[in-house]
Amino acid sequence: MSQLKQLLCLAELDQQQLAGLLDLALEIKQHPNNYSTALKGKSIALLFEKPSLRTRVSFDVGINKLGGHSVYLDQQNGAMGVRESVEDFGSNLACWTDAIVARVYSQQSLIKLAQSSKKPVINALSDLYHPCQALADLLTLKEQFGDLSKVHLAFVGDGNNVCHSLMLGAAIMGMTLTVVTPPGFGPDAHVLLKAQALGQESGAKLTLSQHVSSASGADAIYTDTWMSMGNKADPAQVERVFAPYQINTAVMQRLAVKNFMHCLPAHRGHEVTSEVLDSDYSLVLQQAENRMHAQNAVLVSLFA
What we know:
GO molecular function: amino acid binding; ornithine carbamoyltransferase activity
Enzyme class: transferase
CATH architecture of the largest domain: 3-Layer(aba) Sandwich
CATH class of the largest domain: Alpha Beta
Organism: Rheinheimera riviphila
GO biological process, one term: citrulline biosynthetic process
Radius of gyration: 19 Å
Structural class: alpha/beta
Keywords: Transferase
CATH superfamily of the largest domain: Aspartate/ornithine carbamoyltransferase
Number of domains: 2
Distance between the termini: 11 Å
């Protein structure tokens, strides 16, 4: 596997690199002691414009387990691009730290950080992509089913950043992915074109639909919150539009799907019922744990 330089979007990876990251994540998960000094002497900036539970803790604890040191910066340190420019943030952090993990509102901020710091930047969530989440999801599916090219995943909900990264990851790995969204809430057209191009190379099958029935027979069904952080849409209108797309026990049984996935936080009783979220169907805690292992694989690869 060629060395990783950064991770702003999964489309930066080829199939060999992505498969290699997943294999390394499994290896780190199974033999953590072998990697306890992988980041010795390294300091990683955790730059967060948005709130977080899983992303912050999984990176903080993961870096510690690899023998590194993390420093957390939130908006109390001054809004990036307001108190000082994104470029000045990046160039200053480069004076002290070895890499930047950034959870931001805009993908453009990540690009500016990478250009100004000339240090590895990891996208911990932006408006367009959530590659670390998708890596954890692919790792979870690999643990459940083995060969990802034989897996059929269905995503039901808003065509958001999580959906985009799943599309790219599934396309690279040759998976079957069905994306089900309400009219007007489909994925970004540019991301769709990129995923389709990648899928032609790998043999992936990508289907877009507005009907939940299209998810029938999938190996796993995945949903996410109906309103992303920062979304200005009217909650009442969103509730009306998305209500037919709720994942509940009746839907799981009707579609004959045995596994449920969600990136969390979940809004119980909205996109998914507690009955499904807490059931034997649910892989959500496995996904959450795998955030750390997948991210650790990225960090190890950056400094290999």
